[in-house]
Amino acid sequence: MRIDCDIHPFVPNTRALFPHLPPHWRDTSEIRGIDDLHSVNYPDASPLTVRAEWRPAAGRPATTAALVGAQALDAFGSDIGILNCLYGVQTLYSDDLAAAYASALNDWVRAEFLDRDPRFRASIVVSLENIGMAVAEIERCAADPRFVQVLLLAGTSHPIGKRLYWPLFEAAVNHRLPVALHAGSELRNAPTALGWPSYYLEDYVANAQTFQYQLTSLFTEGVFNRFPELKVVMLESGWTWLPPLLWRIAKYWGGLRMEIPWADRSPAEIVRDQVRFSLTPTDGPADPDRLRRVLDHIGSDEVLLFSTDYPHAQFAGAEVFPAGIDEALRDRIAAANPLATYPRLAESLGGTA
Amino acid sequence: MQRPADIVDCDIHPAVRSMADLEPWLERRWIEHYKTYGALRQTHYVSGAPYHKSQPNASRRDAYPPEGGPQGSSPAFLSSHHLDANGITVGVLNPLVQSQGVRNLGHSAALCRAINHWQAEIWVAREPRLRASIVVPYEDPDVSADEIRHWAGDRRFVQVLLLSRSSSLPGNKRYWPIYQAAAEAGLPVGIHAFGNSGWPVSNVGWPSFYLEEMVGHAQTSQSGLVSLVLEGVFERWPTLKVVLVESGFTWAPSLLWRLDKAFDTLRSEVPHLKLRPSEYIRRNVWWTSQPMDEPENRRFLADMFDWLGWDRLLFSSDYPHWDFDDPTRVIMFPASEEQRQAFFAGNARAVYAL
Predict the structure, then answer these.
(1) Is B128 exposed, middle or buried (0-12, 13-18, 19+ CB in 10 A)?
(2) Given A173, A232, A260, A274, which residue has the most CB atoms within 10 angstroms?
């Protein structure tokens, strides 16, 4: 069993979503020329956005179930794929427009992918512009067991642990949905804490810093204490930065416990219990022995989830695992860990989480 | 651990008793200006920190001078309480006195000049173990370059001091006059954590806690380092030395892996770079050690030293701040005599030409 936890179907343009938009928003889109929501998080032509052999002669890659099934599942021997749409609906400013597009995107992925290939599962995309509406969208989509998690962009307006967002975690836990943060930003804040960089390369590298701030926020604000059943999944986050971040949080926690008296477990324990990371990209050393040391530093074989990050260009060839991850761990990462993370997926496969 | 014979402390913070200490080197207009308007920065309180520290002045409660005044404000007490007691042979001063990042650039420049005189006359002139840093009003890079040139011949000043939370990313072209002047003078540029950039302290907005601000310096410093490399600062000034002070360093190996990997894919965007990012960093960048991370298994730290290189790390205590590192308790894992000597003194003596 191999479960790919991070696959990206691409929306061709907003017109593809029109069948799933209420007439008012369809008309609005026509009249106002809302042709596309092409996010700067992943510019189409960037070499990182699409691996060369998956780039079509014209238009976007990964737009149909047949194509994604063949290129992302068959080619890597995966049995199940979790679809994470990154179309830029989260950056719309109007509560209503953003909610309408998020719903349309979820209905599009259901109609175009979930209904066409039983190997697919999907994440519920929500806009955080209005938390009540985000919760309503989770409730609406959760009725369909093929939606297995809630998907946010890692770069939020406010640190994700703040209480403002807790209704979202509560709804997710109620429906046994992990909450995923994926690389990318709503861009309510600049891509770095020192403003807007000159290069896309800086934006992309800065995603790892975003995840570090967010993991710190989730820890300090006590989200995992309030929601002990919650799983948070970091997607396309990289994961080799994790041990040093945990050491640093633990060090300052030691000196600043009075700020967060609710913290009852070390950050490392919390991560082992409640936080998961997609495998790709492995931002690792060239030397496999060093990667083994990084895994020792992490100290758990439960935190990594298999992913290709299709169609993003993160590795060459058909081998997704980097050297340094042994066979037994590969098996865990490919099946046991995803099944333990996604209870709704495990149940649909006849197992128990 | 036995105390090494030679210890260079690369991060000591001298404090003013009050801003009146700087008046001997300030024009009347700036003295009056400060009394009326303060030194306004890109933050909300006139004085004090946006995130309340863990202790008064973020400093050790045992570091108050017997004659009064805040911690770190007495040269005599700093000498006995820190340099003598901890066996520091050379100490580099990094004043974090309100000056850098002050919005009124004229005021910022005047304060920086005064602080440099204050370091020279109150601190290093009286204590031969101390060295000073050239504090520059970095949001006015041309004036900063003038400040560097003003002090460049004075060997008691061993580096140019910037703060990590600048208004723009530090590799941005607008700061290049600073690097030009530092490279000409052969002075390292120290970039110390903190400052008030005007941006939230994280790229996901303002966090709730001081703990997050402190942890977040590591992330902000990562973005700053990436900017210096990708903007081509080290391509343009191949001999420029940058020392990241109090930024943490254990984040560096994984950042270098990530940066190289993304660079390999996206290098067409940055054709001005001739080397991979990690190659510039291994040539041009050093880190001070405090705050030393404390993994449960201290041997994990040895991996970080090995991967970054024992020649890249400089001991620092951060005296008198509360998260001070004691030199006898900082390397809590097996290390060779040669490695210890490099870390505690050799690397700093080379970087700062001591």
Answers:
(1) exposed
(2) A232
A148, A121 contact by CB (below 8 A)? yes
Domain that holds residue A258: 3-348
- Put simply, whether A158 touches B (Cβ < 8 Å) is yes
Classify the phi-psi angles of B306: left when phi > 0, otherwise alpha if psi is within -120 to 50, otherwise beta.
alpha
Token pair recorded at residue A46: 């960037």
Residue of B260, B271, B209 whose CA lies nearest to B235: B271
Whether A310 maps to a domain, the answer reads yes
Which positions in chain A touch B295 (Cβ < 8 Å)?
243, 247, 250, 297
CATH number of the domain at A178, please: 3.20.20.140
Other C-beta atoms lying within 10 Å of the C-beta of residue A44: 14
Tokens 């400052």 belong to which residue? B195
How is residue A124 written in tokens?
A: 């519920």
pLDDT at residue B294, rounded to an integer: 87
Coil, strand or helix at B115 = helix
Q: What is the pLDDT of residues A135-179, one digit of tens each?
A: 999 999 999 999 999 999 999 999 999 999 999 999 999 999 999
Region at A169 (left for phi over 0; alpha for psi -120 to 50; beta for the rest)? alpha
pLDDT at A347 over 60: yes
Minimal CA separation from A279 to chain B, in Å: 14
In A, minimum Cα distance to B197 occurs at A194
A-chain residue closest to B205, CA distance: A158
For the stretch B286-334, pLDDT in tens is 999 999 998 989 999 999 999 999 999 999 999 999 999 999 999 999 9
Tens digits of residue pLDDT in A249-303:
999 999 999 999 999 999 999 999 999 999 999 999 999 999 999 999 999 999 9
Is the CB of residue B258 less than 8 Å away from at least one CB of chain A?
Answer: yes
b (16+ CB within 10 A) / e for A18-39 = bebbeeebbebbeeeebeebbb
Counting the structural domains of chain A, the total is 1
- Is the ipTM reported for this complex over the cut 0.85? yes
Q: Which of A200, A210, A252 sits opposite B204 (nearest CB)?
A: A210
Does B294 touch chain A if contact means CB atoms closer than 8 Å? yes
- Is the pLDDT assigned to residue A189 strictly greater than 80? yes
**Chain B 146-165, residues with CB within 8 Å of chain A CB atoms:** 165
| Phi–psi pair at A29, nearest 5 degrees | -65, -40
pLDDT tier, B46 (very low <50, low <70, confident <90, very high otherwise): confident
CATH class for the domain made up of B8-351 = alpha beta
Position A243 scores a pLDDT of 98
Q: What Å distances lie between residue B121 and B15, B21, B128, B142, B156, CA to CA?
A: 14, 12, 12, 25, 11
Residue at A295 is within a domain: yes
| Residue range A4-11: mean pLDDT, rounded | 98
Domain boundaries, chain B: 8-351
Q: How far is A28 from chain B (nearest CA, A)?
A: 31
> Among residues of chain A, what percentage have pLDDT more than 70?
99
A353 is a domain residue: no
Q: A83-96: per-residue pLDDT in tens?
A: 999 999 999 999 99
Cα–Cα dist B14/B77, whole Å: 11
Q: What is each CA distance from B215 to A336, B273, B307, in whole angstroms? A: 33, 31, 22
**Per-residue confidence band for A131, with pLDDT thresholds at 50, 70 and 90:** very high
pLDDT at residue B276 is higher than 50: yes
> In this complex, is the C-beta atom of A257 within 8 Å of any C-beta atom belonging to chain B?
no
